[in-house]
Amino acid sequence: TTDIMGKQKRNKSKRGSKQNSNKTALSASSATSSANEEKGASTIVSKIRHGDPRVRHAALVALSSTLFHSSSLSAAALQKERQQKQNHVRVSAKTNKPVVDASDETLLRALSERILDVDIPCATAATGCLSNYVSFYCIGDAEESSPEVEVASEVMVPILFQRIQRSLDKITSLGSQIESSIASKVGETANAALAAGAAGSSAIDKMFAFNTEQWILVSLSLNTLAGLIENFPSAVERVSAASLSTLCAVLPLVEKSFQLTKNGMEESNSDCILDASSNASRAIHSLLDDNIAIITSLQPIPLTHIVTELTKTITNAKMPHMTRLHASGALVSLRKVLVLDEELKSARGREYDAVVAAVQTCTDGTVIDLLSNLFESGDKNHDPKQLVLRMIELSNKCQSMKQDEMMESQIMSEVNARKEPARMIARRQKELKESKKTKAENEDMKEAMMVEDKDGVKKAEETESQLDDVKDELDGVVKSWRELIGSYKLALELVANLCSGREDQDDDIEDVMYPDDDEHMWDSDDEAKLVSAANAAGTCSMEMTCSPSERVTFSSMSSKHLLARIISFFRSWVEFVSMLKDDVPALVAEDVDELLSTCALCLGNMVACDLSSLNEPSLKKVIMVGGQEKPVTDGLDMFWWELIAAMSSDVSDGPKAHVTSVMLALLRHQPKARTIVNSAVLDLLLALITQQYNAEGGANNVQMKCNAISMIGLLCSEPHPSEVNARVCSALLERLRSPLSSTSDDNDADSEKARQSLVIMHEILDVLMDMYGGDDSHDDVFGQQDILGHFQRCLPGFKRRVKKTVANSTREELDTWNETALNCSRFIKYKKG
To answer: Over the range 637-659, which residues count as b (16 or more CB within 10 Å of their CB) and which as e?
Structure first.
């Protein structure tokens, strides 16, 4: 099983983002470029540190819309990624480079200082710049000794905590003042209220405005802090147990402030408060994730307080989904250390028993209830289909308005060009003063032209305003879509982690592997050990090794029908894109693919847990498969045929690749599922293997084929007739001869195609060695199909492809393929006798 909540790291770059053309210099040499960069950074920093807050604010706002704008930082991150793929080769001096880099140490320090600016707009602008930097610049894989890492961990983290604490104190103070003002206003008599007039309301409005400013600043600070924690291990080391308490203090204050805005009829200002709650719970979740040091440093009383606040947040239906899910993630992280770690449990004192029991109880009850309800009912505020259709409609409208604006601009330019001679004539006539009559006519003509110009400008401004409104609405729809998908992905990750176990089971397969020695002969005993170890690893369920606490959690999942709800959720999203029957935006297609990938991994972990719901009566009695009703009995039966129904629907290779991943996990971890496979399903799997490679599907098509090949290998590990063995062998050899097309691929067009062919060949060779490596392994089919000859002819080409793909393959892939080539050589020697 797989735990997918590990922290992501990102790569370092010394490249910045693109700026406006007037801020881009063409370097004549590296020395000149360095000098220009230092000069540019110095100029910006001096303005950021200026004594006049108006100058500081102007400089910070300019930075937020240029160098630290999300689009500029994303472009810089892409440029950095390309540079890394080129083995960190320095860019030529002829390449345009920004005058100042977003990762400049001095600039980052100056921005960090301004987080504590007494002028709140300045502090907000600076924090916004750093929030974008952390979110879009992808800085997490920087070397631990680099200046940007030092600034992030040594400077930003402590300053952000100071900012958060100051703002929380101010919000608390403002809250008391607002409560007092509202209470006194309610208690006033009618005459006193009239006498107070607008002055009292104005004072309350100002306090609400100040309160909103502080919450916006807190939200940005928390978002920046969460990004730093997720990307920099050294930043995590700067956070103490006391700092964790500061983050937890945000959650109850959110509830109080949110209620205060409703009482004060300022609900329009509540969005920033709810955003702060999401960012606070995310920061807590990121901080506790796999952080044994900080969890074990917590004393019983503060630990109990943290668990209590997290539990209240999870059960608070007024909180956003992301807030409650991140709080659940934080609790699951605590459970992993406090409940599942046997060594820590034995070393811990009895004073922790109550809080440990509270963590387990909340997980099995509150957290699983939240997850189950989410997958059953979905997000009631947003319909994904309607969001996408609205996104498409607004996008098309925006494009149409842009085209109309361009066409209108072109027409106006032509009109103005025709007017120009009239202006020149009028000007000359005025200068010559030929006659009062001529002068009067010209003045009338100029006035008419000015009115026409003003009308054109006014119309252009109205069009631009309408376009901005459409863009704003489109941005809102995209944000809602991203939040919806993000909440589903996070929920699936939580379920996957609950099913991932303690990860203390070592894989014993390596103990029977061979040394790197071509002279070692392959024999049937060694093959038997490999097959036995592989089968044991695949069929050993977590139920046999899990702790009593995990059994209780799995039982709770089964009682809430979580597996059945997630498989139904999975199938609905498999068919989502094809159901729209429209040109789906790339953003939607990518998000759906990521969601399906996460869901497939989650389901793979769940079937490995051997949940009791797999053996209990099915919630459904029949499932529609290819237009026909398929009766189902238990949960395993329902699970399998839901997957087959998804494969039978009209969907692309992308969703099918994820479906086959789940099918493979089910066959691997639930051997009973192999008995459900009938001849129709076998035909389906063989068709997936032999069908022509689809270049549009790319990696998804390759993954789908590999999953089908692996499933065939698992099915052939069970007793089966020679006729079936011959069919399977024929299909595998057909694909082995031409991994990516209907013709020979010996001369691959590029290294990526060679890499994909290697992936398929590796799977086929492994399956064939498993099928025919034992003593009783259909020797008649082995001889009839000339499998030994295929291995002898295939192996040289396989080795050539490995060498060809060194540049665009990972070290792990290369090691796996080299091992496969070595095993093939041994297999050939063994079969030749």
So the answer is: bbbbbbbbbbbbbebbbbbbbbb
